[in-house]
Queue: 2 jobs
Job 1
Amino acid sequence: MSREKKFSDEFLNAFVDDQLETEEKGRAYLEIGQDEELNRRVCELRKLRELVRLSYENPPLPENGLSETVTTTRRVRFNIAAGLTLILGVMLGWLLHSSSGFYTDALAPPSQETGVSQAAPDTITVKASKTPARRPAETKLATAAPLSKPAVAPTGEQMKVLFHVSRSGKVYLKDALDEIEELLKFYNATGQRARVEVVINSDGLELVRADTSAFSKRILQLQEKYNNLTFAACRNTIDRLKRERGITAKLLPGVVVIDSGMAQIMRRQHQGWAYIEV
Amino acid sequence: MRKFVSLSLMVPVALLALTMGGCATQDGKGYGKQKVVYHINYDNPKKLKGAMRNIQNHINAVGKENLDLRVVTHGKGVTLLKIANTDPNMQQKIISLKEQGIKFNVCANTLRGKKINYKNDLHDVSEKDIVPSGVAEIAHLQAKGYSYVKP
């Protein structure tokens, strides 16, 4: 009932466009990951969004996340997107008929979490596009996105790797980021399709708290560089921090919040992800 | 008729019990075959020693003929084989584990990054033991059905 309202097309559009508050986004991220139908919708929206963006040479710069403008921007963008969707829908339909290769590439992966993977990292690219320095990232995405080059989907199965970060300390966290980056680099270099999720709980939360992280810059850079990387922080840990120490954790941009780190680890392993404890 | 029913039930049950008993005696331990990857990325000698002990206990519990166990070392974890190069105690442990079929892999990225000459600096490492990326290897092995253990 409320779910229907929560996950209207407009809401999902906002999710894909990274216009949701962190909390909302985290919840959506989680639910979409578990619902195949939602997953598929997000996946399609994202494809459309890519098409829309590709059709612009210079996308208009969105406002910088002021909450009162968000709803109007969202609405306006939704209207524009709706118009373009209509046109693109016709084109897409035509394309789908004429090229079966495209079809399989665009819609083949409604397997559990593909949609999320693509939706969540994508939010990061949108963020990147708010800064003037976004050009390289965007061009990179444009060429890397399966949509722009459907024929050259990298071969092999998609690797799905979860890193678990649960301790604090500069040395440990630096090692963790090094390991994560090393792996992303490796997959990039070998043309291996991959998704990497960093699940953060317990003392590890230090890594993604805006007020405590010694690596905020690096995390932002990593997110900009790798659109297949997601940082996910544990809601239980955040709540505990508030309850026991009265601290309201403010997270770095792009970090999603999940209900429970441990539950997420179980879920992911169940879904076939590899688990690596840093 | 009733006799027949109970008999027809008993036969498969007995068969099942027999085959299960057969399995149990076959591997002697009851765990069946296992594929496991051990992840080592730390250099604390005490922890490393503990890890080697874990592996030996794992072999004892499952049986070496049932165990496909890989130790993937990377980052600071490569220190394990550095220690084994100089410390006879650790060396003996690793030789013994290798004799029982345990394989030790080393990350190429680490060798490059830390400028380690695997022929001189590490205990008994050859080309075939080196994997391009330790972390990617661990992920790959898990995708192939290996269980992950971080001792």
Job 2
Amino acid sequence: MLHLQDIHVTFNGGTILENHALRGISLTVPEHQFLTIIGSNGAGKSTLLGAASGETPTSTGRVEIDNVDVTKWPVYRRAMYAARVFQNPLAGTCATLTIEENMALAYSRVKRRDWRLALSSKRRKLFRERISILGLGLEDRLSDSIGLLSGGQRQAVSLVMATLADSRLLLLDEHTAALDPRMAAFILELTNTVVKDFGLTVMMVTHSMKDALACGDRTIMLHQGKTVLDVAGEERDKLDVAHLLEMFNKVRGEELTDDSLLLS
Amino acid sequence: MSLFAFLGTLEIGLIYGLVALGVYLTFRILDFPDLTVDGSFPMGGAVVATAIVAGMNPWLATVLAFLAGAASGLVTAFLAVRCGILHLLASILTMIAAFSINIRIMGRPNMALLGDATIFTPFENMGVDPTYARLAVVFGLVLLSFLFIIRLLSSDFGLALRATGVNEQMVAAQGGSTALYTYFGLALSNGFVGFAGALFAMTSSFADVTSGVGTIVVGLAAVILGQTLLPGKRIWVAVLAVIIGSILYRLAVAFALSSGMFGMQPSDLNLITATLVAAALIVPKMKGKLQFKKSAKA
């Protein structure tokens, strides 16, 4: 489904602020896999997701989705294949449009946008049906401006929007990080539901090791732009947060011992 | 104010309603402060006058004026999107360049259209009072433009256009090219302004390069005035408000000048307009602050 090959990303190349964010990552995500990505701040989690979505330009490497080379495609073209939900709940929706208008925008993600009316009674019916699974009562507020909703509600709508158009890849960038614990749990549960219902392939970046193990069927850990752990299946089932934390500290420790900082 | 003066004001108000539509598209929809209109308005007049004097069909000449305006919008969009020049500066550059181009188009700074057939001529000769006939044609054209805009903004394409001015990241994530919408929005906006310039030249029987000075402020005044008096989230209300704002603005100005109130003279117009726009921009902010203070007290 998604294939990343030897991806390097360098920010501010050639300057004193040069930051080699990804150092030759190769990753293949087969169809219907739910991959979770963890790592400390600056490990390259979001950059990796950005390389897949097109948000971050890659210095070298190749990005393939569905066996199509999309390395040079801008974000909006890749949107044909991938739906996204952002960390900032306000980023995924347009505040001045109504709920149904936002949904209409998402509905036409993989289509050519033309002169056709954005809101037909057929589409409204579909939107009502889809948004009612949230159980938030939003189906009766379709013509309200989405700016009136809370961050959590907007994030829930963003998730529903991600499933409106036909695509199988879902990219989630710490999409529960900005929410309160209860809403975060609700969104995570909702994520699991839609992923199952629509048979999606998922890449989910998260800060929470617990979520990373509880969701999905494969977990990778990034450190300094490299994959330091890649587990799936039984091996992963045996892991718990304590194990993960231990490994996490181990790679951090190695970093300290081989760090020239200590010698200088 | 005499009936004749009133009808004349209404006609100007409607024509500038098209300018207001254009300004609404850039300032409000795309969040792109676009001063190109100061150049595309006289360009519309210059093109229509030159083409008509050269013997072209007046309707075709009007279409040409629309396209000329749209082209100047595209230049601004190119400078901003492709070359990364600050929006405001990009539009000022086009505006300045348009001044020279407009003189090139006409071959001189101004041009009379006396005696030449315009799009209004057949209607003026239908037996009704020419003033009413002209007004009816202008009204019809503005109505068509109004319907076109609200239909456009309700379409799939229009929805993405509206979202571009608010959340570019979201539009891209939903598969929309924000560059395309910026190009389109600026072209359409300046097309309407060029169209307005053409109508203005044909109703007043002359085209003049300096007629564009302050077009942006007048358009902005109409947008702000209309949306303050006729607030509403629905898109057709917002678009209608902009046109009504333009008419009210013209009426207020004509009334103030004709009644000789406060000893004002026509040349004070720019000062009044600027003050009006500044006030309309400040008042909503003051209102917000006052409400905040009140709620803090309570």
